[in-house]
Amino acid sequence: ATQIFNELTKSESEALLKEIEKFYKDIKQIQSEFSSILDNSIKQLIQMLELLDKLYFPVKNLNQDLLTLKILLANLKIFSSSNPSSAKALEAIVQQFNRVINDFKTCSFQNESNLALLKDEAKETLQKFEAIRDNSVKDLDIVLNSVHMGIILFAEKHEEVSRLIPKLSEQTQNSSKSIADIITNLQYHDIIR
């Protein structure tokens, strides 16, 4: 019995408890840092969405302006057609301007589309981050708190066992001695009879 009691009070149990407590603290620290990073990411996504909402590409106005520019170039081309020497040089310049205008038009439509996609992606990411914060982080907090309560309970029981071991050892030795005395007395009674 003494050997069992000694096993219960070994420093290995205490070392294991300390290791579990350290592991819990490390996980709690990591979870805290993760929550902080997640909250900062959510704030930044909200700010980004606010800025994206303020960003506006006046594509229709730009297209109207580009169309007006094309008309002006066509008028310039018609006006210069009376002078054949300058008409050829102007034709090349008009074609180059028309290519630039068409490219600019394509890019402005693409930019408007990309902006809409970026807004949608940012909103979706924000919703996912908020879901993680609202569900997973809270669930992890509950689990960590349960683990912490388990560690505290285990530590209290370990301490209680460590306090009671000397008493139990003494009582076990007294019981062993009493049993040995009873057996000895019974043997004397058998001898006397």
Shape: rod-shaped
Level of helix content?
over 70%
Oligomer: single chain
Main sheet record: none
Proportion of beta-strand residues: under 5%
Rg, nearest Å: 43 Å
**Which series of helices and strands comes N to C?**
HHHH
Count of DSSP E strands? 0
What's the total helix number? 4
Query: What structural class is derived from the secondary structure elements?
Result: mainly alpha
**Uncertain regions: pLDDT < 50 for 5+ in a row?**
none
Task: State the distance separating the first and last CA atoms.
Answer: 35 Å
Report the average pLDDT across residues.
Answer: 83
Please characterize this protein's 3D structure.
The protein is mainly alpha-helical and 193 residues long. Helices cover 94% and strands 0% of the residues. It contains 4 helices and no strands. Helix 3 (59-80) runs antiparallel to helix 4. The two termini are 35 Å apart.
Please give a quick description of this structure.
With 193 residues, the protein is mostly helical. It is built from four helices and no strands. It has helices spanning 2-8, 11-54, 59-80, 84-192.
Keywords:
0% strand; mainly alpha
Strand and helix layout:
Blueprint (H helix, E strand, L loop, with lengths): L1 H7 L2 H44 L4 H22 L3 H109 L1
Helix pairs in contact: 1-4, 2-4, 3-4
